[in-house]
Amino acid sequence: MLLRGYGTAGPGGWLTLLLVACAAWASKITFELPDNAKQCFYEEIVQGTKCTLEFQVITGGHYDVDCRLEGPDGSVLYKEMKKQYDSFTFTASRNRTYKFCFSNEFSTFTHKTVYFDFQVGEDPPLFPTENRATALTQMESACVSINEALKSVIDYQTHFRLREAQGRSRAEDLNTRVAYWSIGEAIILFVASIGQVFLLKSFFSDKRTTTTRVAS
């Protein structure tokens, strides 16, 4: 399944991105969204298919982005402004191309890193039930349970990685601000110390007064 994306970076030019889905029915992508930019993706969906769009801003500014999902006829299925993360589930109403866009046009100088997971339909069963006369065996049932548990583990790992990346970004940003603040304080203390030295020196410097006598 091919995701076709395009982006606008304002007057600076065009950003084009062609992405291939990571799995047959799911796309998990992390991309950079520059300031004053908009990135859109397209997906061919069959009518009646249940889809889920989940996104989260990992780094940049206030960790927010605009998201918009449109149907084949241009109708707006989902629209949120300046969201840090969200999830939306819908069912396709027709066999056409659906578009979802992420916008950072409200930001003038802050780049964002955005992660999204777009799931189309459901995963095929581990053991197809077609042409089966009997129910699943105990071993097959255990395999299905393990498979579902592993899917949950993968989802949890993904969310924990996103939280870790977001926390690391905030910690690095805070560390940079503290470093700049410390440098500023050091410069102020140095200037103040030099000023005090010259001020005290002026108090103890010899002042010679000249007296002029006027002859009568």
Automatic annotation (TrEMBL):
It is a single-pass type I membrane protein. The gene is Tmed7_1. Its main location: membrane. Potential role in vesicular protein trafficking, mainly in the early secretory pathway. Appears to play a role in the biosynthesis of secreted cargo including processing and post-translational modifications. The chain crosses the membrane at residues 178-200. Residues 1-26 form the signal peptide. The keyword Transmembrane applies. It is found in: Cytoplasmic vesicle, COPI-coated vesicle membrane; Cytoplasmic vesicle, COPII-coated vesicle membrane; Endoplasmic reticulum membrane; Endoplasmic reticulum-Golgi intermediate compartment membrane. This is Transmembrane emp24 domain-containing protein 7. The keyword Chaperone does not apply. GO terms for biological process: protein transport. Residues 38-120 form the GOLD domain. It comes from Rhabdornis inornatus. PROSITE patterns: GOLD, PROKAR_LIPOPROTEIN. GO terms for cellular component: COPI-coated vesicle membrane; endoplasmic reticulum membrane; endoplasmic reticulum-Golgi intermediate compartment membrane; ER to Golgi transport vesicle membrane; Golgi apparatus. Keywords: Cytoplasmic vesicle, Endoplasmic reticulum, Glycoprotein, Golgi apparatus, Membrane, Protein transport, Signal, Transmembrane, Transmembrane helix, Transport. Belongs to the EMP24/GP25L family. It holds the Pfam family EMP24_GP25L. InterPro entries: Emp24-like, GOLD_dom, GOLD_dom_sf.
